[in-house]
Amino acid sequence: MLHTLVKVGNISNLSDARYCAGMGVEMLGFSFNTNSTHYVTPAQYQEIVKWLSGVSQVAECEGLEIEEIEGLSEKYTFDWVQVSGLTFAQVTHIQLPVIYKVLWQEDNTAEKFIAYFKPFQEKVAFFLIEIEAEISEKIWWELKILATDFKMLLDLSHNSQWVKQVTESRIAGIALRSMPEEKTGFTNTEMLAQVLEMLEV
Predict the structure, then answer these.
(1) How many domains does the structure of the chain reveal?
(2) 3-23 tens-digit pLDDT
(3) Residue at 16 is within a domain
């Protein structure tokens, strides 16, 4: 059991999927974009998820058009849809719960975020905030403001030192990213293990 909600994305192999599920991760994300380096074919996906129980599957659809997203249910069965860059009108076409990924820049502010994304709240279950740079005190301040009004998952793939602060804040959960297999059966789970072990109850 973990202290907070955790989503692990970019899952592309059974080893990582079973490890995460065993640690109590609630959501596993799979890329269904054929142009992604983490793309999982329908056959690969079925081979992985048939071994899992008690964990939700997230269709990671960044880079896909809304028509492509709507057609995924013909090939895959999943519980959540993760998108980015879609308009509010496009998001309203998605029938399943939505996770909306936003790449946070240093000059972003809570005020700008609220002004644009406030209407999305009625359709989006979680906003996944991804930060490629190190989290600064300024960014952290803005995120804490957002967390009072928005249900957020904060990606800590590059900022694992912030785990304790996130669990003590109003941020709803943590997002992490799996690494591709180096060879069959061998993956680098060091970062995942480090964060998940810190979150164990």
Answers:
(1) 1
(2) 999 999 999 999 999 999 999
(3) yes
